[in-house]
Amino acid sequence: MRLLVVEDDRTLNKQIVTALEQAGYAVDTAMDGEEGQFLGETEPYDAIILDLGLPKVDGVSVLTAWRRDGRKTPVIILTARDRWSDKVQGFDAGADDYVTKPFHMEELLARVRALLRRSAGHATSEIACGPVKLDTRSGRVAVDGNPVKLTSHEYRLLSYLMHHTGRIVSRGELTEHLYDQDFDRDSNTIEVFIGRLRKKLGVDIIQTVRGLGYLLDASQTKT
């Protein structure tokens, strides 16, 4: 999953990015509303964390512009304001959730996980596809109850596919959602990670759809 953090407080920005990266996300960052709005319009993020009190362009204006242009990316707003009217303004502009500063990082991470689950149609922190289970809260993967150790990139790949079970996902889409903006992207590495995942999982849930991409499907599971 690839996220965008738009926060002008450098210390807080770094803390949020570090926590998200440690949780297994690819993260891009912006320090003002103008840059944040541009990134949100040009990059395919799975979710955005957006501060309201931004320089150049305020967060509500940024979010309003995204929604006006039909962009449906889930957004969590950050605000130091306690007035209920500011929260209402954020929701009316198109926010999906909010966190009031100061906050515990675990709360923000939990809200990000919940937002990603809801946007993909999953109700709980555990996502299953046949014998494979992925716990988004702990970052653990198991097959038939047996833990499977994955690298960070393998986990990101499996997590994205499991959040989109039953839908064909192209290599290009995987590349866009697994790596941050500064990463030297090569879609050919996706095939390598798919091969490693299949070997580690030991079950045939990742189907290759020739010319289109990959499909996570438990109906044809073979051990």
Automatic annotation (TrEMBL):
<dbReference type="GO" id="GO:0000156">
    <property type="term" value="F:phosphorelay response regulator activity"/>
</dbReference>
<dbReference type="Pfam" id="PF00072">
    <property type="entry name" value="Response_reg"/>
</dbReference>
<dbReference type="InterPro" id="IPR039420">
    <property type="entry name" value="WalR-like"/>
</dbReference>
<keyword id="KW-0902">Two-component regulatory system</keyword>
<feature type="DNA-binding region" description="OmpR/PhoB-type">
    <location>
        <begin position="124"/>
        <end position="218"/>
    </location>
</feature>
<dbReference type="GO" id="GO:0005829">
    <property type="term" value="C:cytosol"/>
</dbReference>
<keyword id="KW-0804">Transcription</keyword>
<keyword id="KW-0805">Transcription regulation</keyword>
<feature type="domain" description="OmpR/PhoB-type">
    <location>
        <begin position="124"/>
        <end position="218"/>
    </location>
</feature>
<dbReference type="InterPro" id="IPR036388">
    <property type="entry name" value="WH-like_DNA-bd_sf"/>
</dbReference>
<dbReference type="Pfam" id="PF00486">
    <property type="entry name" value="Trans_reg_C"/>
</dbReference>
<dbReference type="InterPro" id="IPR016032">
    <property type="entry name" value="Sig_transdc_resp-reg_C-effctor"/>
</dbReference>
<keyword id="KW-0238">DNA-binding</keyword>
<dbReference type="InterPro" id="IPR011006">
    <property type="entry name" value="CheY-like_superfamily"/>
</dbReference>
<dbReference type="GO" id="GO:0000976">
    <property type="term" value="F:transcription cis-regulatory region binding"/>
</dbReference>
<dbReference type="GO" id="GO:0006355">
    <property type="term" value="P:regulation of DNA-templated transcription"/>
</dbReference>
<dbReference type="GO" id="GO:0032993">
    <property type="term" value="C:protein-DNA complex"/>
</dbReference>
<dbReference type="InterPro" id="IPR001867">
    <property type="entry name" value="OmpR/PhoB-type_DNA-bd"/>
</dbReference>
<feature type="modified residue" description="4-aspartylphosphate">
    <location>
        <position position="51"/>
    </location>
</feature>
<protein>
    <submittedName>
        <fullName>Response regulator transcription factor</fullName>
    </submittedName>
</protein>
<feature type="domain" description="Response regulatory">
    <location>
        <begin position="2"/>
        <end position="116"/>
    </location>
</feature>
<keyword id="KW-0597">Phosphoprotein</keyword>
<dbReference type="InterPro" id="IPR001789">
    <property type="entry name" value="Sig_transdc_resp-reg_receiver"/>
</dbReference>
